[in-house]
Amino acid sequence: xxxxxxxxxxxxxxxxxxxxxxxxxxxxxxxxxxxxxxxxxxxxxxxxxxxxxxxxxxxxxxxxxxxxxxxxxxxxxxxxxxxxxxxxxxxxxxxxxxxxxxxxxxxxxxxxxxxxxxxxxxxxxxxxxxxxxxxxxxxxxxxxxxxxxxxxxxxxxxxxxxxxxxxxxxxxxxxxxxxxxxxxxxxxxxxxxxxxxxxxxxxxxxxxxxxxxxxxxxxxxxxxxxxxxxxxxxxxxxxxxxxxxxxxxxxxxxxxxxxxxxxxxxxxxxxxxxxxxxxxxxxxxxx
Length: 287
Hints:
Strand content: 5-15%
Oligomer: single chain
Structural class: alpha/beta
Distance between the termini: 10 Å
């Protein structure tokens, strides 16, 4: 495919949240610093919000990859369509906790024992719940009950709630005011500006092993920025398809013309019936 043509070791613009490709824009740096501060200061509850495609999951996976297993125990819950019992069972499973029985009481008792043991060992326990805007109010209340496990001086578990802006609306509910008041660290991911967008594209190309200077022309980058408005997922979509078109034309440069054609077809309501749409579906299928 085009990897050989451009000399890449791997595709630079996949849609999977790969920490290897993490690029910290100004907004991402600020959010990452706040997440680290919240965890290390044992804030208890931390909330991170961002629009679809702004890189929340990638940032969370990068955060978790930074934790020394000798000092931290961490878990990521990415299926947020759970009941209270399912949430507790998932948390126990991710931390390797085996309750005597699978009842809510049994899970809480086993989890409390695990947290106390980790605290005695000097480890920080971190639970990250992604797509938290999908959690039912009673499940969020269950998360609050988990956070009640504490000593006189310290929280035994740090819980990060990450989700789309709808999470803020959910937390503002009157019946969730106890939870909302406990969130002491809040951060928000916003889309990137033009310079960060250009740096993001070039960073991902470099990580993939690209040695072609100026593979994406300045004009192409400007068009991609205007189309994506600095949203990483949309940048990846436009860049991926631009590389495919350049490859089919045996061009070692993504020109403004190529970017314009790709964006026009992507923006079209009939884009999936076109040539690039079929190629893109083929790419997404992993073929």
